[in-house]
Amino acid sequence: MAVEKNKHIDVSIVAPIYNEEDSIPHLVKKIHEVMSVSGKSWELVCVDDGSKDKSAEILAALQEDYPELSPVYFRRNYGQTAAMQAGFDHAKGDVLVTIDADLQNDPKDIPNLLEHLEKTGVDIVSGWRKNRQDAALKRNLPSKIANALIQRVTGIYLHDLGCSLKAYRREILEDVRIYGEFHRFIPIMASQNGATIDEVVVTHHARQFGQSKYGIDRTFRVVLDLILLKFLLTYMNRPMHAFGYLGLALLIPGGLLGTYLTALKILGQDIGGRPLLLLAIMLVLMGVQLIGMGVLGELMMRIYHEPHGRKQYTLKRKTPKKTAPKKEAAAKGTKPATRGKKSKS
Ligand code: UDP
Ligand code: MG
To answer: Are residue 54 and residue 100 in the same domain, yes or no?
Structure first.
């Protein structure tokens, strides 16, 4: 039996899988248990990220018993982010929920996330593993520091960006593509496009089967990714400003030093042995290079957007609710200051 093609799907659950053969049967069963009583049409998109154990075969076998299961198989291991993106590309639901396949997230939390999304009307509900069951020193502490750093750099105050259990409205994900290990930053990239975010506390369990695919080195990669994220958020559409400012900051002092040394030379002094000359040359060269990088960045940004018909802005899919202008404002012919919900008065 297979899920009807073209059937409307309310919720797609996306689970990236790498070597989780022992967890998969429990995961599929638990998700089936909670979703079959949710009153929603749903599918479970399991993306096998080139597992070396029997994960792919187990998924294929489970498909017989669970028609809602819709597996995707990678040829090789591309990483959790690529697996998640493939899940998004494959999913048909109005709402997409991401979850880890190792049972550390609890499928019982999915209805809470969905309810919160409906009740509050936000675009993203992010899980917060308040009682995280991972190694305190090796995982929880670096994660807390990383989250604090991310909050400061991005201005978005979520406790636990690394929690995979999140629910997104489909339209939000259509405007975001993730590469490298950027899956944790989806809410931040989406909020840049105007998405609203809220968080709910979720349960977290220790790993029962298999082992974590990540070590402490991930913390350093997160820091590097954060630098890239900051650049993308602030300078994606104006790279000349990032490189150009830096370039000018070096070029101007370099130029002044060069002029000073040239003046000394004209007055008959020997400047050949002065370290200052070396500094002036270095500053000018680096400044020119950085400004050149800015120009190249601008060209690349245009190549990124234009041939694919991408826009540097995103539009709301739904027209805002109609709200009559306030009487005085209408009389004066001015526009209302805010739009949105009708006031109760
Ligand atoms: N995962 C994946 N590809 C990878 C590494 C991990 O699809 O290359 C999946 C993994 O199977 C799990 C989720 O991503 O479902 C989170 O991985 P893990 O539990 O190892 O991370 P941790 O919970 O230790 O942060
Ligand atoms: Mg895990």
So the answer is: yes
- Is 74's C-beta closer than 6 angstroms to any atom of ligand 1? no
Cβ-in-10-Å burial (0-12, 13-18, 19+) of 152 comes to exposed
The answer, yes or no, to whether any atom of ligand 1 lies below 6 A from the CB of 83, is: yes
Name the residue at shortest CA distance from atom 24 of ligand 1.
212
- Closest residue by CA, ligand 1 atom 18: 212
Same domain? For 102 and 154 the reply is yes
**What whole-number distance in Å separates Cα of residue 101 and Cα of residue 190?**
24
Let me know whether 185 and 61 are in one domain: yes
User: Which pTM does this prediction carry?
Assistant: 0.85
> Which residues constitute the domain of residue 252?
239-304
Measure the CA–CA gap between 109 and 122, rounded to whole angstroms.
17
- Ligand 1 in reach of 16 Cβ (< 6 A): yes
Per-residue pLDDT of the chain (345 residues; tens, 9 = 90+): 445 667 899 999 999 999 999 999 999 999 999 999 999 999 999 999 999 999 999 999 999 999 999 999 999 999 999 999 999 999 999 999 999 999 999 999 999 999 999 999 999 999 999 999 999 888 899 999 999 999 999 999 999 999 999 999 999 999 999 999 999 999 999 999 999 999 999 999 999 999 999 988 888 899 899 999 999 999 999 999 999 999 999 999 999 999 999 999 999 999 999 999 999 999 999 999 999 999 999 999 999 988 888 778 877 777 778 788 887 655 554 444 433 344 333
Residue for token pair 């994900």: 173
In sequence order, the β-bridge partners of residue 28 are none
| Smallest-distance ligand from the CA of 160 | 1
Q: Are residues 91 and 230 in the same domain?
A: yes
Count CB neighbours of 184 within 10 A.
24
CB of 305 shorter than 6 A to ligand 1:
no
- Count Cβ neighbours within 10 Å for each residue of 14-49 and write b for 16 or more, e otherwise: bbbbbbbbbbbebbbeebbebbeeeeebbbbbbbbb
Cα separation, 345 vs 339, in Å, equals 15
Domain count, the chain: 2
